[in-house]
Amino acid sequence: MRAVFPEGFLWGVATASYQIEGADFEDGKGPSIWTDFSHRPGKVNSGDNGDVACDHYHRFSEDIELMKQLGVNSYRFSISWSRVLPEGRGKINRKGSDFYNKLIDRLLEVGIQPMVTLYHWDLPLELHRKIDGWESRDMRHYFGDYSSLVFSEFGDRVKHWITLNEPYCSSHVSYLWGEHAPGKRDLKTSLTVAHNLLLSHGEAVRRFREVVKDGTIGLANVSTFVEPATDSKEDRWAARIRDQFINGWFFETPITGEYPSELFKRFNDAGVQPLIEDGDMDLISTPFDFWGVNYYTRNVIRKEESSILGSEVVQGELAKTEMGWEVYPEGLEAFLYKTFKEYGKKPIYITENGMACKDKLTDGFVEDFERVDYMKRHFSSALSALKAGVDLRGFYVWSLLDNFEWSYGYSKRFGLVYVDYEKGLKRIPKRSYYYYRDFLERD
Question: Does the annotation count 317 as an active-site position?
C-alpha cells in the first residue's frame, strides 16, 4: 500500500513536549500551567504528573534511534514555551534552546524532517498568573513574540510548522469542562479563550512570513466526524450545530473570517459570545499553508434542547479504544474530503491518529494486534481520500512512545513503543512498531 502514496509523502510519528520530555524543573525551565495543574490533588489520575514523563529530555538520542530504525521520514514534536522562555517573555533560556537545537540537528543527520508545533497546551505559568493567560487579548502579542524567537532560532532548519495544537481542547476542554489545565468551567470564558487562541494563530502566521522565507505553516485541529443519531430533522440540526462547535469554529473561521453563523447566533442570543474588535477577523483569517487533521473517532449526536449546544453525544455501537472512543476509520476518509472541499482546498497532513490499548508486557513483548488493525484501516482510509482527490501530504501516528496522557496520567498507552514506568523507563517496541516498520520498508 505504501507505494501507492505520492513520492515525498511524509510518514511520521508525533509527540508533545509536556507528555514526554520530563526535566520539568531542570536547566532553567519555568513551570507551565500543566506543572501546576498536575500537582493539584484530584486533577490527574493517580496523582501522576510530567515531572519526569518519558525523560525524553535526557534520552532524545535513544528515541531518535528508535525513529531511525522505524524508518519514518518525519517527526512532529512541540516546543515547550517555558523551556525557552521560562516566564513566557523576556530573556531566552539558552539551555532550553540548546536542547531543541541538538534534537533538530540529530533528526536531520539521520534523514528525519522535523515538523514543529509552537503550542501544545503547556502555557508558561507566569503568563497565566500575571495576565490571566489565554483569557487576555494581550496573549496574541506574547505568543507572537515567542513565535518570532522560535522561528529565528530554528527556522533555518525547520521548514514545517504548526501554530497551535487543537485549540478546541485548550479552550473548551480546559475552560468549559475543566478537565485540562487550568481547569476552569465557564462557557463565556471558554469562547473568549478560543477567540484569543485564533488571534494568536493569525499573529504567529504573520510573524512567520517575516522570518522564515522558505517554509510552510498550518493549524492542527481536533477533527471529529459528526453524525446524527437518526435521520430526523431535529437530530440532523443538532449534529450540524455540534459540528460547528467542534470543527467549524476552528476550521471555517480561519478561512472565511467569520464564525459559523448558526452557532454564533445561538451564543449571541445567550449573551456568551466572544468580544470581537475591529481587525480581529482579518487577523484570524491571515492566509496560511496547510491543515493538520488530528483524527481519532466520530460523535453520534441527538437533539437535547436543555444543552447550550442543543445536543448531546450518544454512545455508538462500534468497537471502542481504551479511551472509550469508537474505532471508525470511515470517518477519517469522510473528514479529509470535507476539510479539503469546504475549508480552502489546502494541503492536509494527518498530524495525529492512533489508539489507546490495554497493552500488556508479556515475556518482554507487547502483542498489540488491535493497534495494528487500527493502523491498517486508517492507512487505507487515507489512501481512499487521496484517490478521491484530497491533497494529502503526510500521516503521523500518535504516538512514538507511551506517555503522560493529560488528566489520565500514565493509565492510557498510545505508543508504538512501550515505556516501562516500573523499570527505568525502558523502551520496548511493540508489535505495531514492527508493523509500521515493515509497512514503510515495502516498495
Answer: no
